[in-house]
Every structure is written in C-alpha cells, then in structure tokens.
C-alpha cells in the first residue's frame, strides 16, 4: 500500500464550481500535512499547510481527519487559474522523508 | 528574498557520461532535499540533508547516485554513468528545519535531465 494515495482525476469543473479532493495516508504517526499545487512543467508550490483540525485561506479550505487518516482540500468558486495538479504531502516525523501523492489533476472550464 | 535556485535548468547528456546538478537553498534553511520526478509521475525522494547530521540517503536508487552539501549550504547531486532511465526532472527543496512549522518545503525550478 502506498504511503499517500490520491484520486488522480482528472476533475473537469466549470468556472464557479466547488470541488473537493481527498487524500489518504497509511501511517497513523503522521504529523504534518500539506497541499501543494504543481503547474505543467513547473515545480510544486506550497498551497496550504494543515497542522491541526484544518484551516482556510480565501477560497481554499483544508481539513484533517486523523481518525480516518485523510486530508481534504475544498476549492470554492473555481477560477480558470486553479487548473493544476494538486499534491498531497505527508511527513511521518519518524524520519526525514516527506511522502508525496501522485497528484490530482484539475481543469476548470470556461 | 531569493528562492531555491538550481542549475542547469536543462541538461542533455549521452548515456554513460557523468552529470552534476547544483542546488542553492534559501539562505538560512538548514534542511535540503533532492527529489526526482519522471514524466507524469509523483515525486520520488532521493536524499535529505539536515544541518551537520549524516544525510539520509535511503532514497538513492543506485550507487551511481551521490550527493554532497558543502558548508551547510550549496548541494551537488552527481549521477555517474548515466542511463536512459535517469531521464527526469530533478527537484531540490529546502526548509528552515525539521519539526513544528519549520518543515515546509520550498522547491527550486528543477533541472530537466535527458539522457540520450
């Protein structure tokens, strides 16, 4: 089983829609969680950190559910510029490795 | 301030040649990571440096791969006797430290390696 799993999509949604992605992790000792976005042929860029029960930044809301071992990302009022691949990242804290999901592809359609 | 920089941005080499990839982390960041990403794939961890501690080399795919970090700053990833399967984007990231909210990683633009 992979350490971090994401639905690869693709998710194709119209502008203005709300879309949610989930990510599950296998190790209950995981301590820190992140969402990154990656545009085509670009490096990953931090979107949000998720340290406690969740947090919100504008149109983006991240939630952490430790009992079920998943994190989610909700995007409201989707913009064309939100089109990208969204990477779920987990740090086990028992070592030095960050585990990256393979990403969920989002395309926002005009 | 300046972000993570990597050089070269693109490298084309012939099978069997050695290559060196360079990473300049954000000033003051003690942790440095190397990853590689093949086309359409997720990030694969290669190696991690934290301060003066021994690096975590557990992700290096073979003994042809090695990395150094001099003076706790600049890092060089070396691939000896390159193979076609080494073709990928090599990404470097740095973070302030490890633990708490200091472990957020910031990525460089990557080096796109093509082995012919």
How would you sum up this structure, described in words?
The complex is a heterodimer of chains A (110) and B (116). Chain A has strands spanning 4-6, 11-14, 19-25, 32-38, 45-50, 54-57, 60-65, 70-75, 84-91, 98-100, 104-109. Chain A is mainly beta and 110 residues long. In chain A, strands 2, 4, 5, 9, 10 and 11 form a six-stranded mixed beta sheet that branches. Chain B is an all-beta fold and 116 residues long. In chain B, strand 6 and strand 7 form a beta hairpin. The mean pLDDT of chain B is 91. Chains A and B meet through strand 5, strand 9 and strand 10 of A and strand 4, strand 5 and strand 9 of B.
Keywords:
heterodimer; A: 110 residues; mainly beta; six-stranded mixed β-sheet; globular; B: 116 residues; four-stranded antiparallel β-sheet
Summarize the topology.
The complex is a heterodimer of chains A (110) and B (116).
Chain A lengths: L3 E3 L4 E4 L4 E7 L6 E7 L6 E6 L3 E4 L2 E6 L4 E6 L8 E8 L6 E3 L3 E6 L1
Chain B lengths: L4 E3 L2 E4 L5 E6 L6 E7 L5 E8 L14 E5 L5 E5 L8 E8 L10 E2 L3 E5 L1
Structure summarized in a few sentences:
By secondary structure, chain A is mainly β. Chain A is 0% helix and 55% strand.
- Class by helix and strand content of chain B? mainly beta
What best-fitting shape of chain B do the alpha-carbon axes yield? globular
Helix tally of chain B equals 0
Report the total helices of chain A: 0
- The tally of beta strands of chain B, per DSSP, is 10
Gyration radius of chain A, to the nearest Å? Answer: 13 Å
Task: Report strand % of chain A.
Answer: over 45%
Find the count of extended strands of chain A (DSSP E, 2+ residues).
11
Helix content, binned percent of chain B:
under 10%
Overall residue-averaged pLDDT value of chain A: 90
Through-space gap between termini of chain B: 37 Å
Q: Biggest interface and its residues per chain?
A: A-B, 22 and 24 residues
* Poorly predicted tracts of residues of chain B: none
Largest sheet of chain A: 6 strands, mixed
Radius of gyration of chain B: 14 Å
Strand % of chain B is over 45%
Overall mean pLDDT score of chain B? 91
The proportion of residues forming helix of chain A, as a percent range, comes to: under 10%
């Amino acid at each position: 089983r992979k350490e971090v799993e994401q639905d690869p999509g693709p998710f194709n949604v119209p502008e203005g829609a709300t879309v949610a992605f989930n990510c599950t992790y296998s190790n209950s000792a995981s301590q820190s969680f992140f969402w990154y976005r990656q545009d085509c042929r670009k490096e990953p860029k931090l979107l949000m950190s998720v340290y406690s029960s969740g947090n919100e930044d504008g149109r983006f809301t991240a939630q952490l559910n430790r009992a079920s071992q998943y994190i989610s990302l909700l995007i409201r009022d989707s913009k064309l510029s939100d089109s990208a691949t969204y990477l779920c990242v987990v740090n086990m804290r028992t070592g030095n490795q960050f585990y990256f999901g393979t990403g969920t592809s989002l395309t926002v359609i005009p | 301030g300046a972000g993570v920089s990597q050089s070269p941005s693109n490298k084309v080499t012939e099978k069997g040649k050695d290559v060196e990839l360079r990473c300049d982390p954000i000033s003051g960041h003690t942790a440095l990571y190397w990853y590689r990403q093949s086309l359409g794939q997720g990030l694969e961890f290669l190696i991690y440096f934290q301060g003066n501690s021994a690096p975590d080399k557990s992700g290096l795919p073979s003994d042809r791969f090695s990395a150094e970090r001099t003076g706790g700053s600049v890092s060089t990833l070396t691939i000896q006797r390159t193979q076609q399967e080494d073709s990928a984007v090599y990404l470097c990231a740095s973070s302030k430290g490890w633990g708490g909210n200091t472990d957020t990683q910031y990525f460089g633009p990557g080096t796109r390696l093509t082995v012919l």
